Amino acid sequence: METIQFEGRKIAMKQDRTGYVLTLSVHPDEIPEMLVRDFVGARYQVVMVRMSDDNKPMVREQEYPSKDLVRLAGVLCRDPLFHAFLAETGQTFEESETAATDWLRHELNIHTRAELKTNQAAATQFRFIHQEFQAWKTTR
Description:
Radius of gyration: 19 Å
Oligomer: single chain
Structural class: mainly alpha
Strand order of the largest sheet: 1-2
Number of strands: 2
Largest sheet: 2 strands, antiparallel
Strand content: 5-15%
Helix content: 40-55%
Number of helices: 6
Mean pLDDT: 88
Number of domains: 2
Low-confidence stretches: none
């Protein structure tokens, strides 16, 4: 089995009836000839690793350290787009900071957002919620 390796940059993501459509930009010098020759519709097993600014694989937990999650959670709960995301996905009935804060605490099983500093399970789940929200924003 021959593998293809190249660096790509995410430039768009949308959803259609069959799933998500991910658009990558690949530098002309990096596009593998084998990939160019394959027919449209060819299937691939894809493995991706996000790269940091120093060209090393990124550790997701370092993107937003736990201490920064508390601040990010506060910002998110005040964001009208996050309110719309929660309402549109059926998580809340009301688009408000109070509804978003209450939902987040319930969803993460925490009493205060400060617990994100020490509760690793809640921090991991919050990162996932944040990623879902970011993906949702790209479809708007």
